Amino acid sequence: MQNKPRTTHLDELYRNFDTLPVHMLFDLYSMKLIHRCIYDPGNVPTVINDLFVRGNLIHSHNTRSSSNFALLNNVNTDSLTFYGPSNWNKLPISLRNQQSLYLFMKQYKKHLQNLI
């Protein structure tokens, strides 16, 4: 499709198509869901919103991580309930504070592409 030799490294092919490897696409769209739960919760089903617990709902006092998601002990570490909040908490603050979904997706995709 790109008229490249068969030995071309996959990273170059992903860059040429302006896409991401499958595991990074999963990261991108799971972070999109988390972003929508935070900044547009009215358009996310309640059952999905309830999967993710904010730290300020657990502690009645202000803590350093009260704005982060709480990672509950009774959740499987392979589940989106753990994976999503865990990765959201690792994002740079500038990305987490981006309220526009369009700009968030654009910036986060660029962030992921820099990791390839």
Reconstruct the topology from this structure:
Elements: H1 10-17, H2 22-39, H3 46-49, E1 53-54, E2 69-70, H4 80-90, H5 93-96, H6 101-115
Antiparallel strand pairs: 1-2
Helix pairs in contact: 2-4, 2-6
Concise synopsis of the structure shown:
With 116 residues, the chain is mainly α. Helix content is 52%, strand content 3%. It has a two-stranded antiparallel sheet.
Structure description:
With 116 residues, the protein is mainly alpha-helical. It has one domain. The protein is built from six helices and two strands. The chain has helices at 10-17, 22-39, 46-49, 80-90, 93-96, 101-115; strands at residues 53-54, 69-70. A two-stranded antiparallel ribbon has the order 1-2. Helix 2 crosses helix 4 (80-90) and helix 2 runs antiparallel to helix 6 (101-115). The longest helix has 18 residues, at 22-39. The chain starts with 9 loop residues before the first helix and ends with a helix. The model has no long low-confidence stretch (mean pLDDT 83).
